[in-house]
Amino acid sequence: MEPIVIIDYGAGNLRSVQKAFERLGHRAVFASDPAALADAPAIVFPGQGASPPAMAALERDGMGDAVRAAIAAGTPFFGVCLGLQVLLERSEEGDTACLGVIPGTVKRFDGRLKVPHMGWNAVEPRGEHPVFDGVPPGSYFYFVHSYYAAPSDEAWVAGTTTYGTEFASVVARGNLVATQFHPEKSGEVGLRLYDNFVKHLVRPRAT
Amino acid sequence: MPWYAGYAMLTKRIIPCLDVTGGRVVKGRSFVGLRDAGDPVELAAFYDRAGADELVFLDITASSDGRDTMIDVVKRVSEQVFIPLTVGGGVRSAADVRRLLQAGADKVAMNTAAVLDPAAFAEAAEAFGNQCMVIAIDARRVGHDGPAADPGLLADDHPGRRGLALGPDSRWEVYVHGGRTPTGIDAVKWAEYAVGLGAGEVLLTSMDRDGHLDGYDLELTRAVADAVPVPVIASGGAGNPSHMAEAVSDGPGGGGADAALAASIFHYGEFTVAEAKRQMAAAGLPIREATS
């Protein structure tokens, strides 16, 4: 299989994402050129930091269009943290227009909570998405974020977490899965999620 | 049920702290089953298996050669261990922060440099996001016999000379240079100010308690946890798991912290992370149970 492509648009440390896939025996390379997405067997879309500069970077060099095209073409796609949030239509963070792949908005946590929501919290799967294969319900994953995705169509919600409010910590449909938490920072269960992505969403298409 | 009923599902974190110099972890005991207890990668993997929620690596080297060695340590650890990694010690500028993040750190802690040059801390937070910037504060109770702050330490226009300065109600003072130098700054006010500069987390060490193994300074911890809207890591004084439970308890008398950091009790093997977590869970605290 050709290597998995990790999109590099200047939003945070990508090294641990790459190392996580390598640990699992899957080659992964960085790409900052939108053209590299067209032939990718799978795409990982990480991200940290704030939505406004991230969206500006994505729109500046055409990466945003390439992301939309790859998802529409059915390329297996894994978004992480900010890489989930920018898939929605709009973010309250700087009132930013996002990629609009998923209907809904990104909201800020209640001001009475400690923000960022930082640490290990439980994820309850909704439905039976294959990324949860072998992952017990209520497993803990590592979160660092101040905003959360609120898809307007509940069918997108594949897992939920509660922090003041219950929010979508995993969204998925077809070839696309995205997590608000960081699988590459969530120990064994996190690596399991990446492995399941390759096993169930990427490999069946690649062969 | 209160509006924040689901709040407790976010678990309280246990964070072992490792002091590193010359690419080696100091203070380590001889861990059973480890080939090399001074090797940062082996120790990090050991703590990961034991259920540590995060790791803090503190660079205690002063030289610039040591800095390069630390970058290498961070690279090697982050390739092998898939839990969050905070790195601190001698971080002076946004450029230093960038190098550590690129090496694989998830968060970077600034202490002395943030006090002496708050703009440097703000610059790093602006560039890399609040979520990866930790303000490390060494605080000491006022009213002891130590020397007063040198008036020349802070620049003329530094807020530590005005609004953040110690006042009649101040109870803890910020110290810098590894706890050797008093600043005349109120620790609680400094924590609030640093969050305004862009700190996403506070690593709060009680110098009065550090090394004494008789429990955290719960009043200090509570004062800062109540004052800031970001997570607080309690540090200094852990001697057993019930001290850690007190530090993160939100109940009356508890420290109200989000995480408890400890070095000695884990390094010297008095308690494992897993044992600490079992005791804390038994005390009713939300804890991520160790998997192995």
Characterization of the model:
The complex is a heterodimer of chains A (207) and B (292). With 207 residues, chain A is α/β, with parallel strands linked by helices. Chain A has one domain (4-201): Class I glutamine amidotransferase (GATase) domain (Rossmann fold, 3-Layer(aba) Sandwich), CATH 3.40.50. Chain A has 5 helices and 13 strands. Chain A has a 9-stranded mixed β-sheet. The N and C termini of chain A lie close together (9 Å). With 292 residues, chain B is α/β, with parallel strands linked by helices. Chain B contains 10 helices and 11 strands. Chain B has helices at residues 40-50, 64-80, 94-103, 112-116, 118-128, 187-197, 218-227, 241-248, 264-267, 273-282; strands at 13-21, 24-26, 55-59, 85-88, 107-110, 133-141, 172-176, 181-186, 201-206, 232-235, 259-262. An 8-stranded parallel beta barrel of chain B has the order 1-3-4-5-6-9-10-11, surrounded by 8 helices. In chain B, helix 1 (40-50) packs across helix 2 (64-80), helix 3 (94-103) crosses helix 5 and helix 8 crosses helix 10 (273-282). Chain B starts with 12 loop residues before the first strand and ends in a 10-residue tail after the last helix. The chains are: A alpha/beta (207), B alpha/beta (292). The interface between A and B is large, with 41 and 36 residues.
Helical residues, percent of chain A: 25-40%
Query: What radius of gyration of chain A results from the CA coordinates?
Result: 15 Å
By CATH, the topology of chain A is: Rossmann fold
Q: What percent strand of chain A?
A: 25-35%
Question: What percent of residues of chain B are in strands?
Answer: 15-25%
- Derived from helix and strand composition plus strand pairing, the structural class of chain B reads alpha/beta
Number of helices of chain A: 5
Shape of chain B: globular
Q: Summarize the helix and strand pattern of chain A as letters.
A: EHEEHHEHEEEEEEEEEH
Q: Number of DSSP strands of chain B?
A: 11
Spans of chain B of at least 5 consecutive residues whose pLDDT stays below 50 are 1-6
Total domain count of chain A = 1
Tell me the span between the first and last alpha carbons of chain B: 34 Å
* Coarse shape of chain A: globular
Average pLDDT taken over every residue of chain A: 94
The average pLDDT value of chain B, as a whole number, equals: 90
Percent of residues in helices of chain B: 25-40%
